């Protein structure tokens, strides 16, 4: 059975573990439609459009992954808030 990562801590641990676990965690974040829509709404409310919102969501995941692996994510907010 495929394990679904739900909490921020589970996602963070999986990303830091690397390999297949990292891929599963990033896919899990990417597939969170509610999170994607939050980012798109934020971008639209700040003079952007749907395409800009999608780009920002993708870039946010890349930056989150990089910052986690480089020890720069402090965890002072939720991942939703971070993105």
Show the helix and strand layout.
Layout: H1 8-17, H2 19-30, H3 33-45, H4 50-69, H5 79-82
Helix pairs in contact: 1-2, 3-4
Number of domains: 1
Strand runs, count: 0
Proportion of strand residues: under 5%
What's the story with the biggest beta sheet?
Answer: none
Uncertain regions spanning at least 5 consecutive residues:
none
Q: Which structural category do the helix and sheet elements fall into?
A: mainly alpha
Mean pLDDT: 91
Strand-and-helix sequence, N→C? Answer: HHHHH
Provide the gyration radius in Å.
Answer: 13 Å
Shape: globular
Specify the helix fraction band.
over 70%
Distance, first to last CA = 29 Å
Total helices: the number is 5
Can you describe this structure?
- The protein contains five helices and no strands.
- It is an all-alpha fold and 83 residues long.
- The chain has one domain.
- Helix 1 crosses helix 2.
- The longest helix has 20 residues.
- It is globular, with a radius of gyration of 13 Å.
- The model has no long low-confidence stretch (mean pLDDT 91).
Features:
mainly alpha, 83 residues, globular
In a nutshell, what does this entry contain?
The protein is mainly alpha-helical and 83 residues long. The protein is built from five helices and no strands.
């Amino acid at each position: 059975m495929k394990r679904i990562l739900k909490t921020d801590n589970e996602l963070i641990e999986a990303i830091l573990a690397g390999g297949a676990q990292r891929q599963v965690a990033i896919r899990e974040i990417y597939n969170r439609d509610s999170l994607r829509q939050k980012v798109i709404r934020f971008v639209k409310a700040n003079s952007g459009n749907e395409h800009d919102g999608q780009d920002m969501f993708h870039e946010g995941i890349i930056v989150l992954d990089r910052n986690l692996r480089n020890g720069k994510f402090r965890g002072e907010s939720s991942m939703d808030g971070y993105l």
